[in-house]
């Protein structure tokens, strides 16, 4: 059971959230985007939000700043959070403007807000479940896309709801987080996305 729980934690790692959000958008959006346009977004997102953080993680690990990919300790989380925030800000200011993708733009703004809030709480000695924050962000963003484009995404939403519940259970089972840390992650992910609705929904 422990191995299965850890596998689920790896599969739903927060690093994948930005890329999954982008893939979800392109899968459900009725707007036409050429293959080249999609690649021009997904490829840099993959490099910036997955490969670069992994490289930074190994550098931080080499210097003893972090020990595990799950960043169990409070001190371990500070620098990875800051690095991820810088990457997300770069995406919002350099990659997404003038692309005609307001939904993705505000999705990333919400992710930045959630990450920044998590960092502030971290500096106040509060740990947030980034796994739950990530999956709840995707869940709310997908729900918003369904409403925005008037598309029935019941199956996908049901899968995401189930995934959220499973992930919360797994993280609690592994003793990675307390109930309040799981709740904080959920609230940050949901609230940050909802605050951007008035700008694009």
From TrEMBL:
Ranges that cross the membrane: 7-28, 40-60, 81-98, 104-123, 155-174, 181-200
Domain of life: Bacteria
Keywords assigned: Membrane, Transmembrane, Transmembrane helix
Protein name as it appears in the record: Phosphatidic acid phosphatase type 2/haloperoxidase domain-containing protein
């Amino acid at each position: 059971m422990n191995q299965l729980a850890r596998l689920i934690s790896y599969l739903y790692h927060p690093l994948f959230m930005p890329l999954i959000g982008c893939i979800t958008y392109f899968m459900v959006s009725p707007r036409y985007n050429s293959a080249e346009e999609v690649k021009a977004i997904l490829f840099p997102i993959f490099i910036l939000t997955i490969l670069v953080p992994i490289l930074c993680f190994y550098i931080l690990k080499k210097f003893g700043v972090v020990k595990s990919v799950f960043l169990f300790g409070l001190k371990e989380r500070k620098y990875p959070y800051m690095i991820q925030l810088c990457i997300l800000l770069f995406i919002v200011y350099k990659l997404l403007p003038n692309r005609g993708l307001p939904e993705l733009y505000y999705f990333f703004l919400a992710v930045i807000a959630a990450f920044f809030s998590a960092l502030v709480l971290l500096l106040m000695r509060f740990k947030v479940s980034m796994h739950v924050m990530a999956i709840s962000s995707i869940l709310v963003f997908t729900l918003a896309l369904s409403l925005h484009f008037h598309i029935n995404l019941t199956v996908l939403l049901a899968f995401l709801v189930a995934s959220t519940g499973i992930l919360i259970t797994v993280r609690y089972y592994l003793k990675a987080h307390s109930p309040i840390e799981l709740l904080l992650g959920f609230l940050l992910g949901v609230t940050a996305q909802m605050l951007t609705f008035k700008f694009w929904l």
